[in-house]
């Protein structure tokens, strides 16, 4: 259901850098935020530190896949949920601690697809949307990457690069199929955010995009074996996926958190990259590392207009 009483996110370039600045209505604020409109954009007045303290959320639900769960990033939490491989330092846990949130329900799970929001992924993991309650006042969502099949696409492209590292064998193989996959996910993505709004009507809902995986061009074959001509092809596919997520989430009243800040891709050094390559040092291959989780926490906090502690 389209919810007209929610503040839309600030439109952003799907592949651009910078911190997200959109903000929909925040629940349970002690004092209203001043909102000034300029053109079609919304700019929110800064929240003073004392206001931020009073703006703490009561029940936060984190929904999503492995880019939320953080497999193999430092210590693992929720040991009974071994299949989900949640990190104890993923961004939901960092955010809950930094904002002083009294109750966090982190149901993110590695390998999750959108159907796992409605049905059990493992015997000991209920459907993710079951964590939502009428009183839930903050929800973050990171989903659809596995539905798109990014891991399988990257593996296929890596395999094809071995015989043509300077060409574009992956782009030749897929053609416009990846664009079609993204378009085909729109209805399901829209339904997810509509269902979240229905179950938790007073919640601030944030759709968290995917961190940049590959650079715009060049690449770093063979450490990340993607052919030179396929690097821009796959980078464009990821920006289109993020753009689709932004469009469908905001249409349902959620705020899109743009985490796609360039310069932190798998080809960067260990002190700079936010996503690990195929031979990881901190985290799972082609997944956020500790720095990536810290950066995502900052992006989400910025979207909530809460100063860094």
TrEMBL record:
<keyword id="KW-1015">Disulfide bond</keyword>
<dbReference type="GO" id="GO:0004806">
    <property type="term" value="F:triacylglycerol lipase activity"/>
</dbReference>
<feature type="active site">
    <location>
        <position position="287"/>
    </location>
</feature>
<protein>
    <submittedName>
        <fullName>SGNH/GDSL hydrolase family protein</fullName>
    </submittedName>
</protein>
<dbReference type="InterPro" id="IPR036514">
    <property type="entry name" value="SGNH_hydro_sf"/>
</dbReference>
<dbReference type="InterPro" id="IPR037460">
    <property type="entry name" value="SEST-like"/>
</dbReference>
<dbReference type="Pfam" id="PF13472">
    <property type="entry name" value="Lipase_GDSL_2"/>
</dbReference>
<feature type="domain" description="SGNH hydrolase-type esterase">
    <location>
        <begin position="62"/>
        <end position="295"/>
    </location>
</feature>
<dbReference type="GO" id="GO:0019433">
    <property type="term" value="P:triglyceride catabolic process"/>
</dbReference>
<keyword id="KW-0378">Hydrolase</keyword>
<feature type="disulfide bond">
    <location>
        <begin position="220"/>
        <end position="267"/>
    </location>
</feature>
<feature type="disulfide bond">
    <location>
        <begin position="84"/>
        <end position="109"/>
    </location>
</feature>
<dbReference type="InterPro" id="IPR013830">
    <property type="entry name" value="SGNH_hydro"/>
</dbReference>
<feature type="region of interest" description="Disordered">
    <location>
        <begin position="1"/>
        <end position="21"/>
    </location>
</feature>
<feature type="active site" description="Nucleophile">
    <location>
        <position position="66"/>
    </location>
</feature>
<feature type="disulfide bond">
    <location>
        <begin position="157"/>
        <end position="170"/>
    </location>
</feature>
